[in-house]
């Protein structure tokens, strides 16, 4: 499969930024669990925060990649991740 240059740059951007957001969100999850927050609440907060931070990363590069199909798919995934966190917070308590 041949990728165009924009898709390659977006892929590389995601490979170098998403792990940092993952570590930050994971640290928040660890702090919540150590603080004694229930697991469902901690997972809901973690998922919402993780999705929000990834969404912000996507917004940062929107002017450059908004026409790339991979960008549209990843933004939809990030929004779904935030919504899943809200569902965890509201309905699994």
Short key terms for the protein model shown above:
93 residues; mainly alpha; 85% helix; elongated
What does the largest sheet look like? none
Unreliable spans are: none
Alpha plus pi helix count: 4
Share of helix, binned: over 70%
Principal-axes geometry comes out as elongated
- What share of residues are in beta strands? under 5%
Structural class: mainly alpha
Describe the structure.
- The chain has helices at 5-34, 39-60, 62-65, 69-91.
- With 93 residues, it is mainly α.
- Helix 2 runs antiparallel to helix 4.
- The longest helix has 30 residues, at 5-34.
- The radius of gyration is 15 Å and the shape is elongated.
- The model has no long low-confidence stretch (mean pLDDT 93).
